Amino acid sequence: MTINLTDKKILLIEDNPFMRRSICSMLYTLDIEHVVEANNAGKALAAIRKRSFDVILADYNLGDGKNSLQLLEEIRTQNLLPFKTVFIIISGEQTPQMVLGAMDVKPDEYLAKPFNAHQLSIRLKRNLLLKQLFYPINQAISDNNFAQAIHHCDQLLSQNKQHHLILLRKRAELALAIDDLKKAEEIYLQILQRRELPWARLGLGIIAFRAGRTEQAIDIFNKILQKTPLFMECYDWLSQIYQHIGQTEKAEHILLKAVELSPNAILRQKKLGTTAYHNQHLEHAENAFKQVIKLGKNSIHKNSEDFAALAKTHNDNNKTDEALNVLNALRNEFRHDSEAEIRALLVESEVHLHRKAPKQADDSLNKALDLSQSIEKSLPKELLLELSKTCFLHKKESLGMEILSPLIKNHIDDESFIAEIQHMQKQLDLKGFSDNLIKQTKKELIDLNNRGVALFDQGKIEEALNLFEDALERMPHNHTILLNIIKIQLFKLKTENNQQNYQKIQTQLRLAQELGIPQQKLGQLQIEINRLQPKHEKYAD
Asked: Over the range 303-327, which residues count as b (16 or more CB within 10 Å of their CB) and which as e?
């Protein structure tokens, strides 16, 4: 497989006109004829919206506005980056912070200045070849057709010896995506027998975590970091597992180490802020949230929630003036955003309570309640929890419970969110206020599941389906109920394979993804569903 650069379309993003001309000259010496130039992220984004490119070459620093990593995050989030497109960061900076920050965002390549036309040609051809190689696999993954992705990967593994290792890595990742832990472990062990690679060792740690072997996973992650202390993804997994087992102090310690090495990863800083706030380490939380807001200035991840979190942290740390200043900044940054205004009003209410100004505190809470009722779309669960918490702070227990009850019922199978509710209860000294409802709801869900399974086992398929569909109407965010519906619809598709049943189950899969059901819980179902795709649609293309 050879790569011809002549017909490739290149977008070059470089704010320095002299460097831009120099790189253009290199590209022309490589017989590349189609080069579009942009001197900032805004013009680059406009060009990307108009046409597709084979390669995007982007200098890290682009003057005022977004840098190239923020641009990459944005076009990925907005699905503006085709699978065939290579994104290469070019930079004269070689500091560990800069390089690690770039690696966190995972461009296809990081090319250090200075470089010549020959070096550029090698990088372009190598990455274009890999994009071409992986295109059918990535397209199948995008279509949620993991059976097809695995088929393509296995086929390439049998044919392509040159890229065998990178294909094995992709095959292991596909196995993890469908929760085939046995296959993933087999591949990672096969790789490690030949060569000690941190990412393969990390894979074994992830498998141990998923399989419930917590201590083994922690041991694996710690050993990786002893040998490879700049492996940032390992810090994320280790902090996640400590969060999962309730050791939030250790999770915070790991995140502090990670952001010291790579301070420009906005989502990791946000995780640190949230964890430190949970632990009431307010200085750490303040520093993290300040960094989140700074990094978010030109980022797709910019969020009013981060301003509210910083303001709350200031308030808890007896810095009420600073808290109000942050709320003013929030309102300026997110004008005409109702959710942002609700966040601001809730924190403002807490600040007034802190200042012993109950009338102003009540006014802010009432405005937040009125605004929340006027919004047609449902509010995020975290914001509703804040609304409930503020009601409890104002001794409006019945109103707080009115908001909290559907949250518990809807998200009873979301362990981390239920833990947040229980943490709030402990924080406010509510003495088990929601414990009975949590216990009762868990029991109701178990009973519902048992009734549905019993009906299904008796062959009463429609009755079982109706039972779960009625429950989903009452609890539209419940993962367990939706997964049960998908499994019953899959049985129906097996017995009555038609377009209507297939489209219905695809709609339910999309809903499952929107609700944040983890991919590993959907993967095997997606494989079975895609195998049952009606033939006339399979060959429609």
From this structure: bbbbbbbbbbbbbbeebbebbbebb
Domain ranges of the chain: 9-139, 444-538
Is domain 444-538 annotated with CATH 1.25.40.10? yes
The count of other CB atoms within 10 Å of the CB of residue 355 is 15
Which region holds residue 299: left if phi is over 0, alpha if psi is between -120 and 50, else beta? beta
CA distance 31 to 90: 20
Q: What are the tokens at 370? A: 């009125």
Rounded Cα–Cα distance for residues 505 and 338 (Å): 34
Residue with tokens 């409890």: 392
pTM for the model: 0.91
Tokens matching residue 323:
């808290």
Parallel, antiparallel or unpaired: strands 55-59 and 9-13: parallel
Query: What is the structure's pLDDT at 535?
Result: 62
Q: Is 123 helix (H, G, I), strand (E, B) or coil?
A: helix
Residue type, 307: F
- Pairwise CA distance, residues 307 & 310, whole Å: 5
pLDDT tens-digit series, residues 334-346: 999 999 999 999 9
Under CATH, which architecture does the 9-139 domain have?
Answer: 3-Layer(aba) Sandwich (3.40)
pLDDT digits (tens, 9 = 90+) for 188-235: 999 999 999 999 999 999 999 999 999 999 999 999 999 999 999 999
3-state SS assignment for residue 226: helix
Distance of CA 169 to the CA centre of its chain: 21
With cut-offs at 50, 70 and 90, classify the pLDDT of residue 540.
Answer: very low
For residue 464, report the phi and psi dihedrals to the nearest 5 degrees.
Answer: -65, -45
Q: Which residues, 6+ apart, have CB-to-CB distance to 379 below 8 Å? A: 339, 342, 372, 387
Phi, psi of 461, rounded to the nearest 5 degrees: -65, -50
Query: What is the torsion angle, in degrees rounded to the nearest 10, for the CA atoms of residue 485, residue 488, residue 490 and residue 493?
Result: -120
* CB distance 109 to 91 below 8 Å: no
> CA-to-CA distance for 402 and 385, rounded, in angstroms?
11
As given in the structure block, the two tokens for residue 521 are 């819980």
Q: Which of 132-146, 159-173, 240-254, 424-438 has the lowest mean pLDDT?
A: 424-438
Measured CA distances, 436 to 129, 406, 428 (Å): 59, 14, 17
